[in-house]
């Protein structure tokens, strides 16, 4: 059987060939008898700016690879509406993200278990992280080897970042060799999902091998309109492809892997959600699940910027034709240099309050600076010290606003709406200032540019944060997992009250993890594939 022979009825239909969908397609097709249809609204990832790591700058905000969504105006951000990049391409956000390999903390998953999610504690999920991983240092008790998810060290170093590490040490933030052993406290250089200086997304790692097996059919530019329901069972999907509306049926199940923004939208377009909300949109309510689209959580990064002297940064290298030519030549010859950079090279995990049991802050320190992401680099040497609250208490929403699938959902993260989040935000700015004022950095004469040296009292700092803070692109939680009556999916990721339907993506997280979210989504998909195989027996 070849993929061209696959038509009509499938065992499984996966909606979304993003970070999770590519993993699922790989694992489900390991059974040669399993016929799988994978639908992706975007196009191919065979695009040079996907492969070249620095190309994230040209993929976010690019309609070829990004859904081009925005939040609603955010009261906590002085009324600003933020761009909200989401991958519209094979590999999804793993094709446009920062490539940082990060699992989060063991306590994150133990907390999921304490919320009633049996099978999701750290000891339960670690084997699935290991199963995917191909770590550059080889197999250990905490790292895998030979998996599809490549983990590599970065291929360049910046002296200014090593000095920031020494400055942090003066404040008690000690160097750490491994951020992924369950306790990420400390400072170090991020490992990345790359191979030979190129981005390694889930399309390369998981999807390409699966397409060779013959029991997977992939359709790109195929946008799902809604689920097909037979009473309380999902039996297939309706989707548009080649300007035609088409139907596909699944004998064993439909799996939504469309992400934390599009999975709740598809549920609502299918009549699954808050009945009153659906009725207002002219959508017939088919099944009441009022928390669909609720519980949105995201990491808000506060970008402090410091001018420096006597230091090499990307700003001055990239602001001349000769510098750009040297960088291009270095990458062409060695697959190294600034074009191989992840957005952030150096990170720190620490506490906003010493009474906390685990770190609640993550720093991303970059040898560059801009007014905002996507803007030209400043013409003078500077670094960015971004910091985010890893466990925000603010909760937002993402909901369909029309029965028309082409209309983007309404995204309201409600950043800084919780009092504790505002208090933590104040502490982060002051902590960043203390780090940059440490003795180790004195020879670089750091000068605060953002928020600015005159911004001192609480009100002024919060106002400045409202102007400079932005998303770090980690939305989760909109179809949260749980055993309680309000949960959208159960711990086996089955949509409550609907047979034959699962959700497998970041939307199922009951609480956001304490770190970057791509690799936890890979883990979720690995675990989901195992559960699906168990249920098939």
Describe this structure in words.
- It is built from 14 helices and 24 strands.
- It is α/β, with parallel strands linked by helices.
- It folds into 2 domains: 1-121 and 200-297 and 398-407 and 475-537, FAD/NAD(P)-binding domain, CATH 3.50.50.60; 155-189 and 300-389 and 416-468, Cholesterol Oxidase, domain 2.
- The strands form 7 sheets. Strands 1, 2, 10, 11, 12, 13 and 24 form a 7-stranded mixed sheet that branches.
- The longest helix has 19 residues, at 518-536.
- The two termini are 23 Å apart.
- Mean pLDDT is 96; it is low at 1-5.
CATH superfamily of the largest domain: FAD/NAD(P)-binding domain
* Proportion of helical residues: 25-40%
Averaged pLDDT: 96
Q: Which CATH architecture of the largest domain?
A: 3-Layer(bba) Sandwich
How many strands, which pairing sense, and closed or not: the largest β-sheet?
Answer: 7 strands, mixed
Give the end-to-end Cα distance, rounded to a whole number of Å: 23 Å
């Amino acid at each position: 059987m070849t993929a061209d022979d696959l038509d009509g009825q499938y065992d499984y239909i996966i909606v979304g060939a993003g970070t999770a969908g590519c993993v699922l397609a790989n694992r489900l097709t390991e059974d040669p008898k399993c016929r799988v249809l994978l639908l992706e609204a975007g196009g191919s990832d065979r695009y040079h700016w996907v492969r070249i790591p620095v190309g994230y700058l040209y993929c976010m905000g690019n309609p070829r690879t990004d859904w081009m969504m925005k939040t609603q105006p955010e009261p906590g951000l002085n009324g600003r509406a933020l761009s909200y990049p989401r991958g519209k391409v094979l590999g999804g956000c793993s094709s446009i993200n920062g490539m940082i390999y990060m699992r989060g903390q063991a306590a994150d998953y133990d907390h999921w278990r304490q919320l009633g999610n049996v099978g999701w504690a750290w000891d339960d999920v670690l084997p699935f992280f290991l199963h995917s991983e191909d770590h550059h240092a080889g197999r250990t008790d905490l790292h895998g080897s030979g998996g599809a998810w490549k983990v590599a060290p970065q291929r360049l170093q910046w002296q200014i970042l090593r000095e920031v590490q020494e400055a942090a040490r003066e404040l008690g933030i000690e160097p750490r060799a491994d951020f992924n052993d369950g306790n990420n406290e400390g400072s170090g250089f991020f490992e990345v999902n790359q191979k030979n200086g190129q981005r390694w997304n889930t399309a390369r790692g998981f999807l390409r091998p699966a397409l060779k097996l013959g029991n997977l059919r992939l359709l790109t530019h195929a946008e799902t309109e809604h689920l097909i329901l037979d009473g309380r069972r999902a039996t297939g999907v309706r989707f548009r492809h080649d300007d035609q509306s088409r139907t596909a049926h699944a004998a064993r199940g439909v799996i939504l892997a469309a992400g934390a923004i599009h999975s709740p939208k598809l549920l609502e377009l299918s009549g699954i959600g808050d009945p009153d909300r659906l009725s207002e949109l002219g959508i017939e309510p088919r099944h009441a699940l009022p928390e669909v689209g609720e519980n949105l959580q995201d990491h808000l990064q506060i970008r402090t910027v410091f001018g420096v002297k006597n230091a090499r940064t990307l700003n001055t290298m990239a602001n001349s034709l000769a510098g750009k030519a040297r960088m291009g030549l270095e990458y062409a010859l060695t697959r190294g240099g600034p074009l191989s950079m992840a957005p952030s090279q150096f990170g720190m995990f620490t506490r906003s309050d010493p009474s906390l049991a685990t770190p609640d802050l993550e720093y991303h320190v970059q040898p560059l600076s801009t007014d905002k992401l996507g803007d030209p680099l400043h013409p003078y040497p500077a670094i960015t010290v971004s910091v985010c609250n890893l466990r925000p208490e603010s909760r937002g929403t993402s909901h369909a606003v029309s029965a028309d699938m082409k209309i983007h959902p309404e995204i309201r993260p409600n950043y800084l709406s919780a009092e504790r989040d505002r208090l933590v935000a104040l502490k982060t700015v002051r902590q960043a200032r203390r780090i940059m004022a440490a003795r180790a950095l004195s020879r670089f004469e750091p000068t605060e540019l953002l928020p600015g040296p005159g911004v001192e009292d609480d009100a002024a700092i919060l106002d400045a944060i409202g102007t400079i803070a932005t998303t770090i692109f980690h939305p989760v939680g909109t179809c949260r997992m749980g055993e309680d009556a309000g949960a959208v999916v159960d711990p086996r990721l089955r949509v409550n009250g609907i047979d034959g339907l699962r959700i497998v993506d970041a939307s199922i997280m009951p609480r956001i993890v304490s770190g970057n979210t791509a690799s936890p989504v890979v883990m979720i998909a690995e675990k989901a594939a195992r559960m699906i195989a168990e249920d098939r027996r």
